[in-house]
Specification:
This protein has about 180 residues and is mainly α. It has helices at about 1-75, 80-100, 110-150, 150-160, 180-185.
């Protein structure tokens, strides 16, 4: 009788252990998927706003440089009297001070920093998404192994647990994001 109770206790403990393991793996898959979803949402929300801010800054710099060029051209005319030249020079100095640009060379615009920030953010987001996808796929693989391998497959069948799909990208979304098109809109 004592041996029967020990064996029954071991079987009961095994069942509880298998049940808890399966539930733990199922919850882990759901948790990691939620983390991946959060990063994808972050990318969805952040990128258009970042591109829009870079575009706005580009417009601001272009307009400012055009104004500076116009003022400089106007100041080079001999038809202006001294007071007009002084007023024009003050206006030009003020614009240059606001812009904090030492030269009027378009390739060295301050917007380059914004583009570098945009590139850095894109790279960081893609790395986060890639890491989250790997974590999700690993947890799905662990879960699928648990529900298909002996002896936990019997418990998984009783719990009606089903195989989960790993994260895969449709072939249409495997192409690189065309950031250039984001700037056209």
């Amino acid at each position: 009788m004592e041996t029967f109770l020990i064996v029954a206790g071991l079987i009961l403990l095994s069942i509880v252990f298998m049940y808890n393991t399966l539930i733990s793996k199922k919850n882990q898959v759901e948790n990691i998927f939620a983390g991946l979803d959060a990063i994808l949402k972050k990318r969805y929300d952040l990128l258009p706003n970042l591109v829009a801010s870079v575009k706005e800054y580009m417009v601001h710099e272009r307009i400012t440089l055009e104004k500076i060029t116009e003022l400089r051209t106007k100041g080079q005319r001999d038809t202006l009297d001294d007071s007009a030249k002084i007023a024009l020079e003050k206006q030009l100095s003020s614009m240059l001070g606001n812009l904090m640009v030492a030269v009027e060379n378009y390739p060295t615009l301050k917007a380059n920093e914004n583009f570098l920030h945009l590139q850095g953010t894109l790279n960081e987001l893609e790395e986060q998404i890639s890491a989250a996808r790997r974590a999700y796929n690993q947890s799905v693989t662990d879960y699928n192994n648990a529900i298909e391998m002996f002896p936990t497959n019997f418990m998984a069948n009783l719990m009606k647990l089903e195989r989960k799909e790993v994260f895969s990208v449709p072939s249409s979304e495997r192409a690189n994001v065309d950031v250039k098109n984001l700037f056209k809109n």
